[in-house]
Write a structure and sequence with these properties.
Layout: E1 5-7, E2 9-11, E3 14-16, E4 23-28, E5 33-39, H1 43-62, H2 65-81, H3 83-94, H4 98-118, E6 133-141, E7 144-148, H5 154-167, E8 171-175, H6 182-194, E9 201-203, H7 208-216, E10 223-227, H8 230-243, E11 246-250, E12 255-259, H9 265-277, E13 287-293, H10 297-309, H11 328-344, E14 347-350, E15 367-370, H12 377-380, E16 387-393, H13 396-404, E17 408-409, E18 411-415, H14 419-428, E19 433-436, E20 451-452, E21 455-456, E22 469-477
Parallel strand pairs: 1-5, 7-8, 7-10, 8-9, 10-11, 12-13, 12-18, 13-16, 15-16, 18-19
Antiparallel strand pairs: 2-3, 4-5, 6-22, 11-21, 14-15, 17-20
Helix pairs in contact: 1-7, 2-4, 2-6, 3-4, 4-5, 9-10
The structure holds adenosine-5'-diphosphate.
Amino acid sequence: MSTVLQLSHFIDNAWVPAASGEQFEVYDPSTEQVIALAARGTAPDVDKAVEAARRAFPAWRDAKPRDRAALLFALANALRERAADFAHWEALNSGKPLARARREILGTARYFEFYAGAADKFYGDSIPLGGDYVDFTLREPLGVTAHIVPWNFPLNMIGRSVAPALAMGNTAVVKPAEQTPITALKLAELALELGFPAGVYNVVTGYGEEAGAPLSRHADIDGITFTGSVEVGRLIMKAAAEHIHSVVLELGGKSPIIVFEDADPAHAAAETAKAIYSNSGQVCSAGSRLLVHERLKDDVLEALVARSQTLRVGPALEDPDLGPLISREQFERVQGYVETGQQEGARVILGGTRPPERARGLFFSPTILDNVRPEMRVAQEEIFGPVLSVITFQDESEALKIANGVHYGLVAGVITNDLGRALRMARGLHAGQVFINEYFAGGEETPFGGYKQSGFGREKGWEALYNYTQVKNIAIRIR
Ligand code: ADP
């Protein structure tokens, strides 16, 4: 029998049990077994973490940027060296396939490396005001930043927002998702080993309402980055209104992959499969609506069904193509959407429930809903599972109208060999990023974030540095 991990908060470089003395259970979604007991954080734990981060802030802010960078580079290297161990825990706890978990850990290392490189290069400006003045700007950190993270990319999203925050001289308090707290704490072990000063990186584990909410409304945080649902995003914004702290929201999507009649059906099918089945569809930027030209539909669907049937669904550590969904609640939600789609008139042409060879567990088959109309709930709402809605269009303007006809606007894919069309679509799409001929193209270097209810603020790349700094202008009269 494997042992159950005992997890504490990480505050001020110390392992701290919950003030309440309580714990909560953490599962392996591949087996639904308990793998850890974690500290059940509440407001007093959050207070302690924010106090530690506040105490650490002045020295971290005033450190030489190159010294902050050195620690962040060391963290990146250490993550690479221990990628196998981190990937094991990430896969075990989140259900994601092992190879994918490993890529995400390496991606996390890349965030720390990228932003370490930025620490001593994010310059201010010198502004010409004539001979009587010297004027320049300083880019100052915000102070204490809060990071509330979801379960679908547990460590990678910590890297995405904590790395730029720390690089710019902020100190951080992280609240991982209650489903997936393990790797956030393993990162703390590394930070401790590498000599990060106390209070620079803190982790409070617990449930959203008990630990996330007090963090989001804490009077002494200066900014918050939240990734998760629109409902909770709204609460985060309301909480920020009380003390006027800055907010970055990344709230999901219902992103289209748009296939024009000149596309190669096999290529379109491969990109669509990647867009919807990666991480079992539990990706905010998943391509969950296939908008396909009516003339190409049969060819694309034939190739897509054939490809989908080859995919293996299974336990994360066996490195399948699709791991389980994160929880029973999520399984039922995804199943419920398939039924809703059928009631609305969609036709299930593949999957629709768990694979026949997996009679139990949280495994869900690659699923394709055909005959979907743009106004259906399965074409409007985020399902967060491997469920694709197929919609046809006749021309460019109809494709654009359907693509933009949702409340979300995170990403969009376009498959065409016509450059003019690709660029017209890219201009017209309401989305923070457009992928042309390769879904998910881009990387840690490219800005990411949403239009409309997908949120605001941009993470990744150089853009993210603006989230974690504020500009001070200094004007000096010299005669
Ligand atoms: P999901 O539905 O994908 O679990 P949520 O938006 O519920 O997404 O959760 C994302 C993160 O937000 C998690 O870390 C969760 O604990 C946290 N969270 C949930 N509710 C609240 C809340 N009321 N205030 C602050 N954080 C919350």
